[in-house]
Prior knowledge:
The protein is of the alpha+beta class. The chain is built from 6 helices and 7 strands; from the N terminus they run ββαββββαααααβ. It is globular, with a radius of gyration of 20 Å.
Amino acid sequence: MTTVRLPLFPLNSVLFPGLVLPLNVFEERYRAMMRELLKAPEDEPRRFAVVAIRDGHEVAPSAPGMPDPTAVPERGPAAGFGADPVQAFHGVGCVADAATIRERSGGTFEVLATGTRRVRLLSVDASGPFLTAELEELTEEPGDGAGALAEGVLRAFRQYQKRLAGARERSLTTGSDLPDEPSVVSYLVAAAMMLDTPTKQRLLQAPDTASRLRDELKLLRSETAVIRSLPSLPASDLTRGPTSLN
């Protein structure tokens, strides 16, 4: 088992290998992380791990009743994630390689990173200024029939795009823009579909490429059918998302 220890960046979304991740970093714990990453030589990778937060939000328990206006806000690297942070996160995440880390005049950071490979979360350390994690690197197995499944997923994805974009909208991509390598197809489609975080997480942690593609084919067919029955859905707006705020 190959393990690695990296800074940990929890998000309300799922990062897939090969996908670009823009970040607007303003919380002190993550600013400290970026300052540490900037200490690495420019010719070395500046890597951190991204994991999705369970339930789509920070999950520290709260007491019933009215908020206490005199309470001191929780601070520190694990603030908002409860007594055992590892329980607040999904168990499989993705390593991100930061191509750009730009510090603004106010001390916040603009970051552009790319997902590289999947990892399993083993433990979380909150003893420093930011969270770090022990991670197991996961291999991507092709599974049975991945090539044929990828072709079917691409055909279904093009139909999904047409329905999502609408008759008067330009297609999100053209055929020449789409890859043909099965694992790349599986990650691209998983990231591009309008799905909730638990479903995207399920796709990320699929046991192999073929299993992910098989799941995506079912999702594409069902989602396309839903969009077809809801012609008033403002689908074109759903394709435009804001930069992740952290």
